[in-house]
Design brief:
two-stranded antiparallel sheet, alpha+beta, about 20% strand
């Protein structure tokens, strides 16, 4: 089964990838930070903060921003997946190394066969989300 949808929330909700994509810029520990590099996503006027969901073959991907979805597509598109250490280096993060988002995905999602199947649908969902929530489109 394939489907994708958006839910809106009054506050910015985090996904398993949020910690790895957004780095605190105000010198505070991540849970207390209010400024991030890159900047945190903006709410949609009259709706709130979007949470993007993509379901494929009973695997649910959740993203707190389209930037996270783009990072997911970039990483899962690699022929050989990066190790936890490589992802930590790429993100610049040091804390919670046992919680890297890639390691939190179900095992079957790591296979090249699954990823080849998932990539077109994740890209289609990204394009649909960009058209639905225009203020998130340029959050590159």
């Amino acid at each position: 089964m394939k489907r994708h949808w958006i839910e809106f929330h009054p506050k910015w909700k985090h996904s398993p990838m949020t910690f790895w994509v957004y780095t605190p810029a105000d010198g505070k520990p991540w849970p207390e930070a209010r400024a991030f590099i890159p900047p945190a996503p903006l709410p949609v006027a009259g709706e709130g903060y979007p949470m993007f969901h993509v379901e494929l073959d009973l695997v649910l991907f959740e993203f707190a921003s389209l930037r996270e979805l783009r990072v997911c597509i970039e990483v899962l598109s690699r022929k050989v997946l990066p190790t936890t250490a490589q992802l930590i280096r790429e993100s610049g993060r040091r804390e919670f190394s046992n919680q890297v988002w890639l390691g939190r995905l179900p095992k079957g999602t790591h296979s090249l066969r699954y990823r080849k199947k998932a990539m077109p649908y994740l890209k289609q969902a990204l394009a649909d989300f960009e058209n639905t929530v225009p203020n998130q489109r340029h959050e590159a």
